[in-house]
């Protein structure tokens, strides 16, 4: 990781300065602590059923509304032979069985990252099991987090060989990241296309009973519903979420019941479609037209990716129960009922869903269908917000405002900028295409590409994380690719009929995300290679060669180790520096969350009289850096706790483990409790200390016992003095020093690099949120230090 990169870089010129740097700025091995208390939560049967019921409204809305438009997109012109309906139904049945049921519900959902789903959740799992992350800001101490679960391999195992193969070349890491970004961009495309096709198909029922109605009226109603849907996003789903599950359950029961009615009334012979023989006959009878109709058949499994991305609040077992007991049978009945109706009404394929509804419940069904379409759209929009938040945490998306809409559920978020972009694009697609078939072609292209990306990532998950036998890996990958590549070949025929839309949308977002990530990596590499030597800092003396003015300076940096270049730039251009300097690093890890008690790591840099500290704040991709005063308050609380622990350590060394790297966490806690007369106000902080000043030779237990009393008195006095000094400095004022590194393409760069860096990245930096806004820094306390870096 970061330490290894630095060692490799300096391997050729190790000397006394290098050794001094290592001693004065040691890694935070001991500060991380070891908290291995992960457990599997068990649910009672009643609670599991309740969660399964609730998952219907969040997870299955998109998949459940597919019957609105599948047969129309499968037979956009007309049905030539009633037997074609049997063949299409057979394809739908086996598509639902192979992809959503077997692949996703029973395999892919188990690859969740502590309940989090989506392409970036899979990527985070891979980053923890192999060194494939492009930004090397992780350290081995991060692996000791309770949420940082990983497995080890035998040296000669197939998993170990795959790991070495992935880590060997940077190009392979970039290819893996690019694959993840493509999948993420297609999910964003789903967030645009799902509301468009679902709402348009639902409100299209108005025209069935009024054939003379102008199609513009249907488009207008759909646009009004979409504007209302996106305008309500800032309220979040928490306030109306309790309605989602009953609506979707009612929807499934109604379409299942109508399906049974239609099978009984029109043709129970459609149940022949459960035989795969009719698939073969369908392709033999229709040739190329049958092959291209797979683009419509595939819409029956749209929403499957949203199922995985929206997994966050429900255990996998609840999702499996809901799908197998409610969703799967109701969908099979709904499609079978529509097929039975079409066998007798071959000219009604364009609006098969509404025409197959019994007349007495037509309008109630129209209302439920519209409500279900809104719920399905909400689920996809929420999934889009979730994957963008994950991409942002991995440094793959420009900094945008993220708002929590629920106090109960951390995963329910709202991203204003993305919401309005989705709304504009969604309305443009709805009003521009005007036909469900073209939107369906676009939708199918996006969905099948996401599924292919998931299959490839799952292959690596099965090898590196699950360590499955190669036969199982081959079976899963082969079967998935055969089915999905078949669908992909079909949607390629429809690229010119609307399938180009998600490709253009994905290309635009991919350009944004990749350029942003490239700029982020280059900025980090610049900080890594230009960081200041600790020997140079020591050479300046305790005053750092400047006037030390009262106050605390918080220097923000992306480095978790080393003194950033902006600090040397600062002290060489200004005549004064604060009495206390704290280097603050806020970094995101490939875990879904970092527990609050493990978030901050604090250590001292250099001798005590320098009054320099480092604080690393660690976040998971689901965590939100709240815009309030908590961050600064918690930072100082942890800093003060560190000083107390450090002082106690000087008088409580009773173990041979006391070494250059500091003490164990438990030892520090015991010292703090024993020497503070039971005062444990900060004992829940999982901090250990590593201080150059407090290092002493290893002594025998007898000698330690004889001196512990006097040492305790001395350390208590030292602690009191330094704590008083720190509090006085804090009261004198806190200044936030932010580095503003601007990257520019060098003169000899290629034209595409100049466009990407000097224009695209510069524009994204200009419109994205500033760090000062994210950290809620008052303007009067902000100091920007600018520098230009050429790549």
From TrEMBL:
Membrane topology designation: Multi-pass membrane protein
Domain K+ potassium transporter C-terminal: residue ranges: 550-788
Keyword flag Transmembrane: yes
UniProt main location, coarse: membrane
Localization annotation: Cell membrane; Membrane
Membrane-spanning segments: 43-65, 85-106, 175-197, 217-235, 242-264, 321-341, 361-388, 409-431, 443-465, 472-493, 499-516, 536-556, 576-594
Keyword terms: Ion transport, Membrane, Potassium, Potassium transport, Transmembrane, Transmembrane helix, Transport
Record-linked InterPro entries: K+_transporter (IPR003855), K_trans_C (IPR053952), K_trans_N (IPR053951)
Residue ranges of every copy of the K+ potassium transporter integral membrane domain listed in the record: 51-537
Listed Pfam families: K_trans, K_trans_C
Physiological role: Potassium transporter.
Similarity annotation: Belongs to the HAK/KUP transporter (TC 2.A.72.3) family.
The protein's name in its UniProt record: Potassium transporter
Species name: Ziziphus jujuba (Chinese jujube)
GN (gene name): LOC107420496
């Amino acid at each position: 990781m970061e330490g290894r990169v630095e060692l490799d870089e300096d391997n050729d010129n190790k000397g006394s300065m290098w050794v001094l740097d290592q001693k004065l700025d040691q890694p935070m091995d001991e500060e991380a602590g070891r908290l291995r208390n992960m457990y599997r939560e068990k649910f009672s049967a009643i609670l599991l059923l309740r969660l399964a019921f609730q998952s219907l409204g969040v997870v299955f809305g998109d998949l459940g509304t597919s019957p609105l438009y599948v047969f129309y997109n499968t037979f956009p012109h007309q049905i030539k032979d009633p037997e074609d309906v049997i063949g299409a139904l057979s394809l739908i049945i086996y598509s639902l069985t192979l992809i959503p049921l077997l692949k996703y519900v029973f395999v892919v959902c188990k690859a969740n990252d502590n309940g989090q789903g989506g392409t970036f959740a899979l990527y985070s799992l891979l980053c923890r099991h192999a060194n494939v992350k492009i930004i090397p800001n992780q350290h081995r101490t991060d692996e000791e987090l309770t949420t940082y679960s990983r497995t080890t391999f035998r040296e000669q195992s197939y998993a170990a060989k795959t790991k070495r193969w992935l880590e060997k070349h940077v190009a392979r890491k970039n290819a893996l990241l690019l694959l993840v970004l493509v999948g993420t961009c297609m999910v964003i495309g789903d967030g645009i296309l799902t509301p468009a096709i679902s709402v348009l198909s639902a409100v299209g029922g108005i025209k069935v009973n009024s054939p003379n109605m102008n199609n513009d009226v249907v488009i207008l109603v759909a646009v009004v519903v979409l504007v209302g849907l996106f305008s309500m996003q800032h309220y979040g789903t928490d306030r109306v979420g309790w309605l989602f599950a009953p609506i979707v359950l009612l929807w499934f029961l109604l379409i299942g019941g109508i399906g049974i009615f239609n099978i009984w009334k029109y043709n129970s012979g459609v149940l022949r479609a459960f035989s795969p023989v009719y698939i073969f006959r369908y392709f033999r009878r229709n040739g190329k037209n049958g092959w291209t109709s797979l683009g419509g058949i595939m819409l029956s499994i749209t929403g499957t990716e949203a199922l995985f991305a929206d997994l966050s609040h429900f255990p996998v077992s609840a999702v499996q129960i809901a799908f197998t007991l409610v969703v799967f049978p109701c969908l099979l009945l709904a499609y079978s009922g529509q097929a039975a109706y079409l066998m007798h009404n071959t000219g009604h394929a364009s609006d098969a869903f509404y025409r197959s509804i019994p007349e007495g419940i037509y309008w109630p069904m129209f209302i439920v269908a519209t409500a279900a379409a809104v719920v399905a759209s909400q689920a996809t929009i929420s999934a889009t917000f979730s994957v963008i938040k994950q991409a942002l945490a991995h440094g793959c998306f420009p900094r945008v405002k993220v708002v929590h809409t629920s106090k109960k559920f951390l995963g329910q978020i709202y991203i204003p900028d993305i919401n309005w972009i989705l709304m504009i694009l969604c309305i443009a697609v709805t009003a521009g295409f005007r036909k469900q078939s073209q939107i369906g072609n676009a939708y199918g292209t996006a969905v099948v590409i996401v599924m292919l990306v998931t299959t490839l990532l799952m292959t690596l998950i099965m090898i590196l994380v699950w360590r499955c036998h190669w036969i199982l890996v081959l079976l899963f990958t082969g079967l998935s690719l055969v089915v999905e590549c078949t669908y992909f070949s079909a949607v390629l025929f429809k690229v010119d009929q609307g399938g180009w839309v998600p490709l253009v949308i994905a290309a635009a977002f991919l350009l944004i995300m990749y350029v942003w990530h490239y700029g982020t990596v280059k900025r980090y590499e610049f900080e890594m290679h230009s960081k200041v030597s600790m020997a140079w800092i020591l050479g300046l003396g305790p005053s750092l060669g400047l006037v030390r003015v009262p106050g605390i300076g918080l220097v923000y940096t992306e480095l978790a180790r080393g003194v950033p270049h902006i600090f040397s730039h600062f002290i060489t251009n200004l005549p004064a520096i604060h009495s206390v300097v704290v280097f603050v690093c806020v970094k995101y890890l490939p875990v879904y969350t970092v527990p609050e008690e493990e978030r901050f790591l604090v250590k001292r840099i250099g001798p005590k009289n320098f009054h320099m500290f480092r604080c690393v704040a660690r976040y998971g991709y689901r965590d939100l850096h709240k815009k309030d005063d908590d961050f600064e308050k918690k930072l100082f609380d942890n800093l003060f706790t560190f000083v107390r622990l450090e002082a106690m350590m000087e008088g409580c060394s009773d173990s041979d483990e006391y070494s250059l790297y500091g003490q164990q966490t438990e030892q520090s806690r015991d010292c703090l409790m024993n020497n503070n007369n039971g005062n444990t106000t900060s004992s829940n902080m999982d901090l250990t200390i590593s201080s150059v000043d407090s290092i002493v030779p290893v002594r025998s237990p007898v000698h330690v016992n004889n001196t512990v009393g006097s040492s305790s008195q001395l350390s208590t006095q030292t602690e009191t003095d330094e704590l008083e000094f720190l509090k006085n400095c804090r009261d004198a004022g806190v200044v936030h020093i932010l580095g503003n590194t601007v990257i520019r393409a060098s003169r000899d760069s290629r034209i595409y690099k100049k466009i990407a860096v000097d224009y695209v990245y510069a524009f994204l930096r200009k419109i994205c949120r500033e760090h000062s806004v994210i950290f809620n820094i008052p303007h009067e306390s902000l100091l920007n230090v600018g520098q230009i870096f050429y790549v």
